[in-house]
Amino acid sequence: MKMKKLVALVSAVGMLAVAVTGCGNSSSDAASTSGSTSDSASASTSDSAWDSSMDITIVSREDGSGTRGAFIELFGIEEKDASGEKVDNTTTDAQITNSTSVMMTTVAGDEYAIGYVSLGSLDDSVKAVKIDGAEATAENVKSGAYKVSRPFNIVTKDGMDNEVANDFISYIMSTEGQAVVEENGYIAVDDVEAYAGSKPSGKCVVGGSSSVSPVMEKLVEAYKAVNTNADIELQTTDSTTGVTSTQDGSYDIGMASRELKDDETGVTSTVIATDGIAVVVNNDSDVDELTSDQVKSIYTGEALTWDEVLK
């Protein structure tokens, strides 16, 4: 009887050991399998190639943007209809962004996206493509090799008598002011002279184009260092608001990244710089160069996938 109990006990212990060992191996195998699956998924994700058969994510600016106005004109996306009216043929499938920074963020977050920004605002979060064989650089804009460019304008109401605004404009159009323009990647105006303003005290409101705003911010900083009596408020909106708010007196100086329209009267524009428009894609995109016609085909909705563009 004792011998049977002993045999039963030994058998039970052996079975328990086998069960524990089996559980341990199962857990280990599961962890190993899980690790392998995770590693495989990670490798698959990291090794995934850019696929030109994917749909193009088209990103454009809002109505009223001077950058959009210049872009659609320069690439022939804007055309005149039978009555002579200008028609913007940008596809309705385009995602609309309301500022340069949002445009950059949107393209940077989508590897199949295309957009456009001020050359002076370009950074390494996105990739500027060559257009018709020319790189988007300030040097190429100045030489005429890169033809996608437009003026940066300031707008003032006819008869404007704000002393600070007038003195600030004198600074912008001086040797010192144009040096700031050039330092920030834009094409400066020629034939300027050293600043010799009166440095008055008071307030000036400047507002408008989000493309002009970055260089204007630098100009404001530089001017305030020269004239500590000045209080300049900078508001970033869009070119159309820059013009209309100057017309109604809300802005002393408006900013517009385009020419004045025929119906925008009662104000005068002054070119303070020339800027290129960089066509940008995601850094992971295989696209490095496009023709003007290819850009137009994308933005009018004629080409829907990158394959159709690059064929």
From TrEMBL:
Residues 26-48 are annotated as: Disordered. The keyword Transport applies. Residues 1-19 form the signal peptide. One of its GO terms (cellular component) is plasma membrane. Its main location: membrane. Keywords: Lipoprotein, Palmitate, Phosphate transport, Signal, Transport. InterPro entries: PBP_domain, Phosphate_ABC_transporter. The keyword Ligase does not apply. Gene3D superfamilies: Periplasmic binding protein-like II. It holds the Pfam family PBP_like_2. It is found in: Cell membrane. Residues 50-176, 195-308 form the PBP domain. One of its GO terms (biological process) is phosphate ion transport. It is a lipid-anchor. Part of the ABC transporter complex PstSACB involved in phosphate import. The complex is composed of two ATP-binding proteins (PstB), two transmembrane proteins (PstC and PstA) and a solute-binding protein (PstS). Belongs to the PstS family. This is Phosphate ABC transporter substrate-binding protein, PhoT family (TC 3.A.1.7.1). It comes from Hespellia stercorisuis DSM 15480.
